Amino acid sequence: MSQTDRSEKTAAILEGDSFESYSRKINRQFAANVYEGLTAQEKFLPSKYLYNKRGDEIFQQIMAMEEYYPTRAEYEVFELHCQEMLEHFAQNQVPFRLIEFGAGDGTKTKVLLQYFLEQDTDFTYVPIDISANILQELTADLAENMPELKVQGIQDDYFRAIDQLRASFNGQQVRNVVLFLGANIGNFSHQESIGFLKEIADHLTSGDLLMTGFDLKKDPERVLNAYFDKNGITRDFKLNLLQRINDELDADFDLDNFQYFPIYDPMEGSIRSYLVSKQDQQVTIRAIDEVVQFEAWEAIYMERSQKYSISDIQKLADKSGFSVIHNFYDADQLFTDSLWQLP
Fold this sequence. Notes:
This protein is α/β, with parallel strands linked by helices.
């Protein structure tokens, strides 16, 4: 199929043309992205769709795994440095909005929230997540356990959320403190990272802050083990996206016919994960009237996770228009939350 034909079918999926006879209501954006990815010359699936209700549950298991160090390391960063972070965020006792992209269940952030409340800090917490399920759970938990906390949750992806917040950034005498934690920046390519960070900068004003979590370069074996655990939890997390396509788009993926395979390139500092077809097969996706052909050992690119040196972080800040204020580390320096300011 030509690129023109693929583009026309993508548009038809988004608009509902030619698919009105399909009785089940579908998420058209999800359907269009799945179609684009699985009909590309090199197949891929957007990693943001890993997070549905089941995906959220599996990811909670991943964060508790012995091999998965990033969550524990960042949690320790917050425990060690919450006082110093507050001194930066509320400098000159200016009220601030703590705006968190990809908030998840807020486990780590709650360390900061609780400490800030104990210090009688004037701030509002704005959690943002693509998953409505996890966001609802977070806001309900905060309402129960921190009823005095001012919370404004937004369910959207990162880029649209920035646009939503644009108006609220204007004319407000508060400092905006954006959190992008959990090494989520590592899911972007280098150019995507710069573009994303520049876009954040474009919607902030002088003196506003951005704190980003970076997984640091380390022993390659330790990195790979974090994404290829002995119990297969990470494998199940990736395979769940195929199950989601089955459930939401009426497809017939046989999950046993796919193998999870991650690789780590220590020169580039990047880990990439794939689902690999074990045999020649075809998958029907009835909601979009598409049959996808797989050759034996053909791969679907699922996700990347970039690891950084301190010089890498400094270069990212410089290229996106920020100044590095401070790097906060865990005790073993596996991870850093890097605080930047817009000049």
